[in-house]
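Handout, section B. The chain below has 486 residues.
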Amino acid sequence: MGSADGPKTGEAEGDARKARDTAVSERRFRFLVAGYAVSSYGTFLNMVALNLFVYETTGRALAMGLFMAVRLASGFVAGLVVGGLLARFSAKSIMLWANVGQGSVMLVLIVAPDGLLTGALMAVSVVIGACGTLFMVALRSSIPEMVGEDRRAWANSLSITGRSLAMVAGFASAGIVVSLVGYTAAFVVDMATFVVCAVTVALLPIAGGKGVKAGEADAEGTGGASADAEGAAGAEARGSGAGKDASSAKGGRRWRPVAFLALAAAPGMGLMVALRGVDAFGSSSHNAALPIYSTTLDASNPAVFVSAFWCVWALGNIGAQQVIQRYAQRTGRSVGALGFGYGTVVMSAAFIAAFAGFPLAVTAVIALIAGAADGLTEVAYTSHLQTLPATLRGHAFGLSATFENLGFGVGMILVAAALDRFSPLAVVGWSHGAAIVVAVVFLLRVAGVRRAERAERAGRAGLRKEEAVEGRPDRGDRDGAEVSGG
């Protein structure tokens, strides 16, 4: 009797211990997201304040474009090297020093004399662009280790919610902060947000990075398997031997082939990242076109429409995160690759419609839909890349960040030139139309892979059934006779 009760007691204790560990990891992650949201507020605050400061200091709009170009180029380069860094250093150390670097360079800008302001601004552009990418990739690639594979959709949704709230607060308060207390005070606030995030990271135990061993990667890759075949990404990546190549890349010296192996290892993964880059290209169009479009609506106060649009967009994004979190908690599943494809189509179509000249009430609904679809694609995309083994995950996220920076940077150049000749609706329509076309190709690819998987499973099931029937002695067939004769 005692032996019969033993396993039940042990199972109950194990379940209770697992529940406690899950609660602790989730509480720690909430603290980390809080620190991340604070630093994100500083990021969006300085996007406005720094651009205004650059224009006021240099008196040239070209300088603002150069500042943004350097920032994007730094993020591009950081995306290429971050996979190798995660193979050598812990995710915690990368996230910590990324915030320390951003806070330090803001301090340099604050104390820089007038004669060195231009150099200080370029340093800020380089460090902010590179460190922002390093922090984001380290965070996203280590989420499965921090909260567990089954909670990654919840964690992704929570971090995106924090970032969306920070974006609204940063954009909404930037003008007030700059006009009331000046640029220096705004830069001090910005520096303080990075210090807060750095302290949060330093105080929390954060898993991830340092090139997880192949055996550990195998265990992690299977955790994300679900009915929507997300786990196939990790399984096929392991089957290809890419994980072994990644673990043998000492010091990240083979980051480039490992990064592309990560995308080639799973069906549709490379196309998914390519779609993300095209989506970033489309995003550049509505970011550049919104100020122009808002000026046509109200030339005396164009900032009103832009601020209202992004606030409503953020409400849709946050609402979508709440739905996704509840869905993941109830079903234990993430939205999957199809959610990313369909979300991209809806989001791109909504952004095109936003410039079609509808009444403001209709445009507000369109902005809400665009925000919700954007939130869906963000969670689906991040969760899907997290199904890769840990040895490949950092490289994949780094290459993804490179594609996103490239798409957005090239888009800003081409869109700026196009807006001089064409209407905002035409430019946004072409840019987001390209994203819709690639998204449709991606959806067809995913549907084809799933049909092939279902056919393969059905074929295996039919073969097993046929073998079982053929082996029955009462059927009188040859195999049955041999068995009964034996």
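Note. The CA atoms of residues 92 and 205 lie 8 Å apart. Compare this with the example in section A.
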